[in-house]
Amino acid sequence: MTVFRNAVFAAAAAGLLAGLILAALQTFATVPLILQAETFEGASQAHDHGAAPAEAAPAAAAPAESRDHGKEAWGPEDGFERFAYTLAVNVVSGIGFALLLVAASEFAGGLLSWRQGMIWGFAGFAVFTLAPGLGLPPELPAMPTADLFARQVWWTGTVAATAAGLALIAFRGTALLSIVGVALIVLPHIVGAPQPESHESPIPADLHHQFVVAATVTNLIFWVALGGIVGLVRQRFLGRADALGKSFA
To answer: Where are the alpha helices (DSSP H) in 136-174?
Structure first.
């Protein structure tokens, strides 16, 4: 039981540090782009509301319409409140991903150094960010999207297939299983991610491109940092390289 407690503590420490790093990176790299996109979203909504002639709406629908326009979806205020919520989400996500990284690496024998941890972190980036992002790139507010459930199913299937494919390539070592691994990685992209009915958006293409690059780079740094930190703290909290691996087995 002590081994598992130490594993959770190590993952929590690594996830906390990596989450802080990600929140700091997002503050300067992605949040300004999101705020910029929200101005286009607001302008688009104002244009749509102003374009509809008043006499075209049925009189009975006017009160309900007024109520809808008066209500806005809740969101954190710009500044400290937005940063605090972003930080909380990143820390919780970092701890969750760190737990997955610790568990997966221990099944494979454990991390021996921070360098090995960074390699595992890059694999996590490939599984959770790079592969799904090829079909479903990061989106800005006001951008059209496909059905949420369909996107979740495709994203989950892509993550699972990519993880399984990388495991077959890295740990099985035979040519046949490596081919199967490559096929698993490619399969979700052959099937294709669900797409919206229309790609028309008030968001400029250049702004979206900047956001995709910024989100991808920040996630790369997050995952590599997370892996490196896990590799560092693992020896301190878990002892010998085979201790937790035997416990999992």
So the answer is: 148-167
CA distance 119 to 105: 11
Report CA-CA distances (Å) from 167 to 13, 72, 124: 26, 46, 12
Residues 162/126, Cβ–Cβ less than 8 Å: yes
As for how many domains the chain has, the answer is: 1
Residues 180 and 2: their CA atoms lie apart, in Å, by 38
Please give the helix or strand (H or E) that residue 61 lies within, else none.
none
Q: Are 19 and 87 in contact (CB under 8 A)?
A: yes
Q: What is d(CA 140, CA 208) in angstroms, rounded to the nearest whole number?
A: 7
Residue ranges making up the domain that contains 85 = 2-48+76-143+201-248
Structural domain contains residue 187: no
- The predicted structure's pLDDT at residue 45: 53
Of 120 and 199, the structure prediction assigns the larger pLDDT to: 120
* Distance (Å, whole) CA 40 – CA 206: 13
pLDDT, tens digit (0-9, with 9 covering 90-100), for 135-190: 999 999 888 889 999 999 999 999 999 999 999 998 877 889 999 999 999 999 99
Check if the beta carbon of residue 179 is closer than 8 Å to that of residue 185.
Answer: no
**Residue 206 placed within a domain:** yes
